[in-house]
Design brief:
With 247 residues, the protein is an alpha/beta fold. Helix content is 45%, strand content 13%. The two termini are 20 Å apart.
């Protein structure tokens, strides 16, 4: 899954793809590099991010999704039901849902759905990092949401532990260490570690644009643990790494 943020404030590439033509070109480039899905997001969910008004989020994502649909599989990264509805009408086929609440929208459109674990909102989530057992609690939450989605008629359900979302660096590492427990549920697992701050901290306070090697290490680890998809900014090198692991 290749990341395509059409936002001014995403932590890694904010502002780079605000122009719709540039965004579409980048989405097609991600697909050419080997992305199976291009994930279009119009609202940053980095820690501390403010909510984007509905009309603005729609303005950012719908034209890009419409242009990409039919040329590459598109997911929409959103917390809003109205945005998910419009994106699916425009040709997206997966709702990548950090709120883990939009399964009924996906079911109504026959779309896939990703349930991600998060507490609070992007603005408040890092105030909610106390767990008795982060792996068990995340696993239980995601399985419950997946079962609810399946009962509602969603045929393609994914689960995502939400690295960096209401998690400390050590909790992120614990989830990575125990990814096999999520894989063992039998539900396809999606992991997004690419360029996140815990990678920077573990690699000498590396800046966002200098986290490729750490991101590749996390992706290879996740693939070896059996995850079904990794969400990344750097598609070409990750595809090469994934092919080597598969071989």
């Amino acid at each position: 899954m290749g990341v395509l943020n059409v936002t001014p404030d995403s932590f890694s590439d904010g502002g780079r793809w605000l122009d719709p033509d540039a965004a579409v070109a980048h989405g097609l480039a991600l697909a050419a590099e080997g992305a199976d899905v291009v994930d279009v997001g119009g609202e940053s969910t980095r820690p501390g991010a403010a909510e984007v008004p509905l009309d603005e989020e729609l303005r950012r994502v719908v034209p890009v999704i419409s242009a990409l649909a039919g040329r590459v599989r598109v997911s929409v990264d959103t917390r809003k039901a109205d945005v998910a509805e419009a994106a699916l009408a425009a040709g997206a086929t997966i709702v990548n849902d950090v709120s883990a609440s939009l399964h009924e929208v996906a079911a109504a459109h026959g779309a896939g759905w990703v349930a991600m674990h998060m507490r609070g909102t992007p603005a408040t989530m890092q105030q909610h990092v106390v767990y008795d057992d982060v792996v068990a609690e995340v696993r239980e939450f995601l399985v419950q949401r997946a079962e609810k989605a399946t009962a509602a008629g969603v045929g393609e359900v994914w689960i995502d532990p939400g690295l960096g979302f209401a998690k400390t660096a050590e909790q992120n590492l614990s989830l990575l260490r125990h990814l096999d427990e999520l894989v063992a549920t039998g539900i396809p697992v999606l992991v997004g570690a690419s360029r996140k701050s815990f990678i920077g901290r573990l690699t000498g306070d590396a800046a966002v644009d200098d986290r490729l090697e750490g991101s590749l290490a996390a992706a290879v680890w996740a693939i070896d643990k059996g995850v079904a998809m990794v969400r990344v900014h750097d598609v070409r090198p990750t595809v090469q790494a994934a092919r080597l692991v598969a071989a």
